Amino acid sequence: MTSVAEGVIDRGAVDELQASFGGELVRPDDGDYDEHRKVWNGSIDRRPGLIARCAGVADVRHAVRFAREHELVVAVRGGGHSFPGLSVCDDGMLIDLGPMKGIRVDPETGTVRAQAGVLLGELDRETQAFGLAVPAGIVTHTGLAGLTLGGGIGWIMRKYGLTIDQLQSVDVITADGELVKASEDHNADLFWGVRGGGGNFGIVTDFEFRLNPLGPYVVAGPVFWSMEDAPDVLRFYRDWVADCPDDLMTIVVQRRAPALPVVPPDLVGKLVVAVVACYAGPIEDGERVVRPLKEFGSPVLDLCQPKPYLAHQQMFDPSFRPGWWYYVRSCDVAELADDVIDIVVEHGTRITSPVSSIALWQMGGAVARVGEDATAFNGRHAGFTFNINGNSQTADGFEAERQWARDYWSALAPHHTSVYVNFLMEEGEDRVRQAYGADKYDRLKALKRAYDPTNFFRLNQNIKPD
Ligand SMILES: Cc1cc2nc3c(=O)[nH]c(=O)nc-3n(C[C@H](O)[C@H](O)[C@H](O)COP(=O)(O)OP(=O)(O)OC[C@H]3O[C@@H](n4cnc5c(N)ncnc54)[C@H](O)[C@@H]3O)c2cc1C
Q1: What pLDDT, on the 0 to 100 scale, is given for residue 9?
Q2: Beta-strand pair 50-53/74-77
Q3: What is the C-alpha to C-alpha distance for residues 128 and 212, in angstroms, rounded to an integer?
Q4: Protein residue whose Cα sits closest to atom 17 of ligand 1
Q5: Residue 128: in which H helix or E strand, if any?
Q6: What is the dihedral of CA 158, 163, 165, 168, to 10 degrees?
Q7: What are residue 225's DSSP bridge partners?
Q8: pLDDT value of position 6
């Protein structure tokens, strides 16, 4: 047995692993160690004993077997965007899938295969070259793997469904290092579980998705009003989206106007409420559908117009830079009742940090047309999903931002229904159970007992086998 003392794994054993490893093994005394242990959330600072940067499936198998043999705690990293930093550990081994960037679009079958290190922007670039897309998230540097395994919500989900609703098959490396394929007709239990159950059952090395026609131009972007207008804007918004077509997806944002070239200097730093739209159908239809939004009240800035989908996908990137300090509280609500709107108005006016914000996601459409029990993902019938981000650029002021997010979320507590598992911090087993609902949680536990009875994969929103 190799000893793990102070986070250092026996050199001889690592040298042996290197002999069969195609990628890079990074140790604490290597020059690029800090670069590779860093994750998106700057408030997370953990030091793995070894980082296994996998070049392919064979490396993943070697890494899993090595970690098992040496009883190492294991973190698995796709894009490193877990809000609570679950994709890096202290001591033990970080299995980093980042180098696995393969993408193969097949326009004839309307499918795409993507490896576990692919980021959303990379996938979009390849698929949009053919006027096709997989519905995924709204920030291009997010990892496809972690996002998909939790469900995947984004700009075109109301038309085409969640990211998991496009999945045709996955390749999984299990806790004993075996390769298992899962699809509707092969290991269907596992296929059900990976569509929402996160990385609990193994390391997914390869995803196969169905593709959908999109753009490449869409009508998209934000319309901003002063936060003082939020009571009227939010009531108008609630009524307007109630009847809108599924081609339209919207997110309400509250924040201080960011210092970006598209924002007039006199607006920067002012409290604003925005409705960000994306219409996933013909441009003329989109222009007609968003017209009432653009004409409501007195917008202070209107950036909603025809643009390449790829450009729209990058819109939020500057607001969520890697390395800033991030904290999130999240919940689903059934509807934007008047008292929910009152809470949104009150807490929105208390934003102080230039990088704190909320995103209020409109759900429904194709997401809700898939059966509640078809996948492990819960919350298909949520009306709206809150993502309350208490952020700061450094440690300075972080605690105050976290408190703002907690207060906002607590005020909404009477209206909480479920919560999206990918928007959880480390909030304990009860919250994971809440995210799945009691029945699905029990089913997921049974699956965990079948595929990972020792809870080898436990740095995730963990479903304990017992
Ligand atoms: C800036 C930002 C924007 C976001 N936007 C959206 C959005 O628009 N829509 C949305 O649905 N979510 C969104 N999220 C949430 C996002 O889905 C999760 O943070 C997700 O976990 C990120 O995936 P990742 O691969 O980058 O994460 P990682 O931190 O690498 O991994 C997250 C979890 O998944 C596990 N994991 C990762 N890869 C694998 C794998 N191949 N096999 C098994 N387990 C694996 C990890 O061990 C960890 O537990 C966003 C998050 C951030 C930070």
Answers
A1: 83
A2: unpaired
A3: 10
A4: 147
A5: helix 120-128
A6: 150
A7: 273
A8: 43
Query: Ligand 1: which atom is nearest the Cα of residue 75?
Result: 47
Taking the C-alpha atoms of 70, 71, 73 and 77 in order, what is their torsion angle to the nearest 10 degrees? Answer: 50
Quick: pLDDT tens for 2-29.
Answer: 444 444 688 899 999 999 999 999 999 9
Mean of the per-residue pLDDT values of the chain: 97
In the DSSP assignment, the letter for residue 31 is: T
Q: Where are any strands of DSSP class E within 257-383?
A: 271-279, 301-302, 305-308, 328-333, 357-362
**Among 60, 76, 316, which is best to mutate for testing ligand 1, by the most ligand atoms less than 8 A from CB?**
76
Query: In the block, which residue shows the tokens 């229904």?
Result: 417
Sequence-distant (≥ 6) Cβ neighbours of residue 241 within 8 angstroms? 248, 250, 362
User: For the residues of 188-213, what is the DSSP string, one character each?
Assistant: HHHHHHHTTSGGGS-EEEEEEEE-EE
Query: Which residue from 259, 263, 261 is spatially nearest to 222, judged by alpha carbons?
Result: 263
44 CA to centre of ligand 1 in angstroms: 15
Q: 28 near 7, Cβ under 8 Å?
A: yes
Averaged pLDDT, 254-267: 97
Return d(Cα 353, Cα 392) in angstroms, integer.
Answer: 6
Q: Has residue 98 got a pLDDT over 70?
A: yes
Task: State the burial class of residue 252 (Cβ atoms within 10 Å of its Cβ: 0-12, 13-18, 19+).
Answer: buried
When pLDDT is averaged across residues 251-260 and rounded to a whole number, the result is 98
- Residue nearest atom 31 in ligand 1 by C-alpha distance: 146
Instruction: List, for residues 151-166, the tens digit of each pLDDT value.
Output: 999 999 999 999 999 9
Question: Over the range 388-401, which residues count as b (16 or more CB within 10 Å of their CB) and which as e?
Answer: bbbbbeeeebbeeb
Quote the tokens at residue 204.
């997914």
Alpha carbon nearest to ligand 1 atom 47, residue: 76
- pLDDT value at position 24? 98
Report d(CA 439, CA 379) in Å as an integer.
13
Lowest pLDDT segment from 6-20, 27-41, 369-383: 6-20
Q: What is the DSSP letter of 256?
A: E
Residue that the structure tokens 């609500």 belong to: 333
